[in-house]
Give the backbone structure.
Amino acid sequence: MEKVSLSCQKFDGIAFVEGFAKAQALVLRPLEQYTPQRSNHQDQERTRFLDACSILKEELDLTLTGKIADEQKALLETSKMLLLDRGWNRQIIQIIDQGYTAETAVHQATHQIVERIGKIEDVYLRERLSDFKDLAVRILHILERLKSGKKLKVIPKQVILVAQSLGPAELLDYDLSKIKGIALAEGSQTMHVTIVARAYGIPLLGGIENICQQVQSGDLLILDGQNGRLYQNPSDEVIDELHRYQASEHKRLLQENKNKDNLAQTLDGQVIELGINLGLADDLLVANAPPFDKVGLYRTELPFMLAKELPNCSEQVRTYQKVLAHAKGRPVIFRTLDVGSDKVLPYVHHQPEENPAMGWRSTRMTLDRRALLRTQLRALIRAVDGKPLWVMFPMIADIGEFLASKRTLELELKSAEKRGETLPSEVHVGSMLEIPSLIFGLKNFVHYFDFISVGTNDLMQFMFAADRGNINVSSRYDTLNVSFLMALDYIQKTCRQAHVPCSVCGEMAGRTLEAMALISLGYTSLSMNPHSLLRVKTALLGVNQEELQNYMERLLKTEHLSVRTQLMAYLRDHEVLF
Ligand code: PEP
Ligand code: MG
């Protein structure tokens, strides 16, 4: 940490989602970081607790009246219900009356519930346990806001969330239109919280050491997601810099918007299909998206993660129908449940694992819990209601897993036919390619796939044996590493020879420089977060695909570790913005 002036503090971090933000901090301290504290002002503490409860209720009501996804609504309704739980409230007041602060009382009461319920082998009660924990954390955050003396009694209009780490579900708990930025002590480029933040255009900075200890809720922050810096109580110079950035960003957006309705083709006429990645049927997100060719990746697990219990078939049908309605006839590639690792379902019992990223997750789990997969496939068949169906299976490590999953789909189609339901007019069954073991035998069985989508987020983590969620290793290797690009090149060529459509839906496809690298390898279909689409499109309109491909072919024969510098120089020489 470096002192810039008397009051302005500067923290260094890594920019995982670009952009600038200015707002008050809202520090989310984990439950474990609260130490017991005594107080002699019982009346005051009681009032603080009751105030925090009414502020939370007000916040929940306000969020519930806003434009939020259905899944988010259900989650907030549960919080509201628990807030009124008499037993919990009484226990907190009792602890305060024993001479403790409101924070300590909330913490201890929650701890006691966690201890008590944790011993009971009942799924329903265990579910309630995580609900209570969520609620306690929310109340503690409000108490912190009240304590900070910044008079944040009313909900701040906009905040920058500050936390040690954050799960995607935790983030979706908030009204995202109020989250202007996120600053984390941990974080990584491809963690799911980053992916959600990117989808909503929320700048995110990670790797800021001890940030929760340095910043208080209510502090004014400026997050510079360009240079990876966070300013606390920013000086006038920093504020001026922010204004200059905002003006240039506005100009860039105007420029990109001019290309909104143009055909996405390179200077030499190569048309590039541009898809968007979605995870929630969020009206606002789709309404603000620029024109797109398809939903290249719909992460079905996100609504599951927000639900308080396993969504049944009809609930799933409604969710998928909503996405299809948003896509207005364009293909939607539904990826079946990809849970596990950092995407956990609170209601599915999961044994703790040493290496969850390489553990019982995704297709491995849905093949073992076939009823889960069958219900999801049944819901998808019903949702498309006679229109084309696109299904994609994640984390396929060998062809056997793909064929077994595909057979399950065929069984569901047969059952639907027997029940007299309308069948999809076309069925396209594809696979994510995100585990290296699938690459080397690809030539022999590529014809089994109707399409392939390369998940570079996981492919990168498994090829380099570098956990995508671990800040110490996740940024260690470059996506433009020659070895990695050669693997991507091989996948593309193998699919092309077999006439199997192949696209990339990992985060790499939405980063301009990386997207140009993919185009140079011959990829003609990319799917990305909606926020990146116009930027990538603007860049590709300025490159000559054949020339770029020749350049990349030469680079891949050199001993460079990464082609980043060379590719940047090439694009600069050709006046392509990236
Ligand atoms: C990937 O792994 O690249 C991918 C698109 O899937 P996810 O990020 O959801 O794992
Ligand atoms: Mg993946």
